[in-house]
Amino acid sequence: xxxxxxxxxxxxxxxxxxxxxxxxxxxxxxxxxxxxxxxxxxxxxxxxxxxxxxxxxxxxxxxxxxxxxxxxxxxxxxxxxxxxxxxxxxxxxxxxxxxxxxxxxxxxxxxxxxxxxxxxxxxxxxxxxxxxxxxxxxxxxxxxxxxxxxxxxxxxxxxxxxxxxxxxxxxxxxxxxxxxxxxxxxxxxxxxxxxxxxxxxxxxxxxxxxxxxxxxxxxxxxxxxxxxxxxxxxxxxxxxxxxxxx
Length: 246
Description:
246 residues; 6 helices; alpha+beta; four-stranded antiparallel sheet; single chain
């Protein structure tokens, strides 16, 4: 008798197609212990060096914590940020970055493709025991890159006075002033460590708004000063850098 022919092997399942290249990046594996407002400001500081950010959303919900969506004004900026920041140690955890599966609402509204999503109706509690009115959380399925909260860029107070200019000679230490009250050494370190020779950031205990940034030598400090002086930490706080007095 002839042996039965072996059945053909079932085709392997097709791999999921990667998200199309677009202006919005999806970032995950973020440190879940960082407060939302600090996380947003830190992400803005780290990514705005690559181009204008028009939308930034991060969440603290149980299912969505450790994730963020960052939308750039143009595709080149998003692509450069993805390549440069992939695996970057952000609050002691390497970031995982990919193109978002859907375009940001901001982009959709700009190109005319935005479609308003229907909100799920909220079940009404019994009239006899209706609790005080509370703000309902948006279901996870409906979460998209909504407009960036104003508190990410405008919560800090506008400095009352402009920093005084200085004519200090070149030094390996930079002096930063007029910083937002909630600016931290970690935020500044992520901004300055892109420059060769960066050593550390030193905040001044008891004095808000100032910091010292040390480099290996004067030349490397000069390059950082030229590249970051005037950099916008927020919409109301440009970075003011000078050489520290010896």
